[in-house]
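Example (one chain per record):
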Amino acid sequence: MLDTHRIRVFRSVMASGSIQAAADNLGYTPSAISQQISALQKETGLTLFEREGRGLSPTAAARSLVAHTNDLMGELSKLDSVVTDLREGRSGRLTIGYFTSAGAEWMPTLARRLSAEMPDLTLELVLNEIPRRGGAPFDLNILVEVAGAQDPHGSRRIPLAVDPYVALLPGDHPLADSSAVTLADLEGDTWISNDLPQAICSKILAASCEAAGFRPRFAVQAQDHYTAIAFVRAGVGITVIPGLAAHLPTSDPQVRVVPIAPPQPIRHIAAVVRDPAGNKAANRAVELLLELIG
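Predicted structure:
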């Protein structure tokens, strides 16, 4: 079995770019770092670094090894956290997956209230829009519902919210003061994307535009909510965005939030509890979310 301390030192050398830099970062002498790297090479039977001028250059084997240790180091870090929890008397851990707009609007308050009620609970909040390699599934996953998606066996799904999309228009847009607009009203505008094209929220918008008889031309590929809103504020174009992501200062005259008349894109938000019978913390988190959402 590989020595995990040597793996940590090796990864530091790879990340730092040299023995000396790794020694500075880890608080060791360059000699100690070199000894650990030599021992790791003997342990693995691999040549990890080659002389290049006055320094060292990582080999292809080194680059492959460091890539394959990413999951290992993540799991070791998680194990360190578990040991810390046990040593300090914390009784449990709750991992919650969330997407960006839910994170901004709900997660801070949820974390504060849940921690106040369960001070011995260790919370881990993880953005679920990025593929998660390794590790156990989320104890509680806050997600946008996708038709036909399969939940983990034995889990429970709880509807949380219906989130209609809204149009964000520059303050001087001809329809900025409208009580509502249709998607067709905006067909000729310059559109700004606010999510990745293959993301579920983009697909919901695309389906509604198809139902309205057109396909929007995105002149700006912002692909995140905050950047898209900034483009609208600058008067570049319009964006159609889930309502949960469209909260703006009420004093902002440069962006108007206008409701959309049917066919209106709507996303449905749910919570999936992995172990509903044995996860008191996850069930309480759902109760708090429902209270928070109202």
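Caption: The chain has a mean pLDDT of 89.
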